Amino acid sequence: MMELIERALAGDRQALAKLVTLVERGGPEARDVMRAVYPRSGKGYSVGITGPPGAGKSTLVGKLASIAREKGLEVAIVAADPTSPFSGGAILGDRVRMPQHYLDEGVFIRSMATRGSPGGLPRTASSVVKVFDACGKDIIFVETVGVGQTEIDIIEATDTTVVVLVPGAGDSVQTMKAGLMEIADVFVVNKADRPGAEYLVAELEGMLHESPKQSWWDVPVVATQAVNDVGIDELYRQIERHRQALEESGRLAAKRSGQRRNDLLRTIEYSVMTEITQEIESDRQMAKYFEKVESGEADPYTVARDILTNEALIENWLQRAREKRRQVGG
Ligand SMILES: Nc1nc2c(ncn2[C@@H]2O[C@H](COP(=O)(O)OP(=O)(O)OP(=O)(O)O)[C@@H](O)[C@H]2O)c(=O)[nH]1
Ligand SMILES: [Mg+2]
Q: How far is the CA of 56 from the centre of ligand 1 (A)?
């Protein structure tokens, strides 16, 4: 295991792929990987790209990755796919859309499911980003379809968030815009070759104008045609500008402190949840409580309160969880 980690940290692609798989799988091995990797992360920069299905996110990421490569940067791409529980389809799709990078050693592409991931650690996608970061990737693009809380969590863990919209998508975009307004650092109107693009740009600029101003950053709206290589340089420039603004205002450091704090809380939460829940379910003393609720004799709220005020019972769970942890050497 340590050898695998050392190899990945030294830039071995195969070892890196294995590490990512371990992290995705979760469990004690994932924790060991994260322990080794976490202290070495923080040099890389992550960019979240989110927006409705088919907006051109993958095409944009591919083009942005090309620019980063031209600048000599090491690039990783994480495509978090909320719809498919298995990543097979997504990988194939993204390989087809990013053919220029599939063969490039400097770009590491990884698709992963965000739902139904087996035994995933909390925030698996952001853990994967940390693995890439520690293994020397300078810039990590994270593509998500901006819908659920999972995706918002992923996006919030990235440094710069790019929200991609397209003209002429109707009401669904209207509601999406409202939800994505707060998280966007840069807006993109892609497929600007289509009618209605100028109108959408103006509409977004209007909405931004009305929302409260931040003194350190004005959210820009960039029109792009990803398939025609139009506007990509400008988008890249705006991402760099946002990074600079974050750094100069001290916000990047603050943001990362907040993320580390969150990582601690989430990790404790996850451990407590899994370890203690196991003990609760297997506790013989719980039988009578379950019976009462199952038969309808008592309501779960009253019984839960009875359980949580039974200190001997709780002490017993903690004791057993502690024992188990000692046995696995964690
Ligand atoms: N007309 C036009 N088509 C575009 C543009 N950019 C991307 N497309 C096309 O839009 C389709 C979807 O592009 P993708 O890059 O796969 O979009 P996506 O947002 O990654 O899609 P999902 O990952 O499935 O949500 C493809 O057929 C692209 O060729 C553009 O600027 N103009
Ligand atoms: Mg895509």
A: 3
Ligand 1, closest atom to CA 52? 25
How many Å apart are CA 110 and CA 29, to the nearest integer? 19
Rounded Cα distance, 201 and 206, in Å: 9
- Max CA pair span of the chain: 69
Element (H, E) at 113: strand 107-113
Q: pLDDT tens digits for 201-255?
A: 998 998 888 887 788 999 999 999 999 999 999 999 999 999 999 999 999 999 9
Domain ranges of the chain: 41-249, 261-328
Query: d(Cα 253, Cα 327) in Å, to the nearest integer?
Result: 38
Rounded Cα–Cα distance for residues 326 and 274 (Å): 16
Cα(90) to ligand 2 centroid in Å equals: 8
Give the Cα separation of 290 and 287 in Å (integer).
Answer: 5
Hey, what CATH topology would domain 41-249 get?
A: Rossmann fold (3.40.50)
Ligand nearest to the CA of 98: 1
**Cβ atoms 130, 37 nearer than 8 A:** yes
CA distance 64 to 69: 9
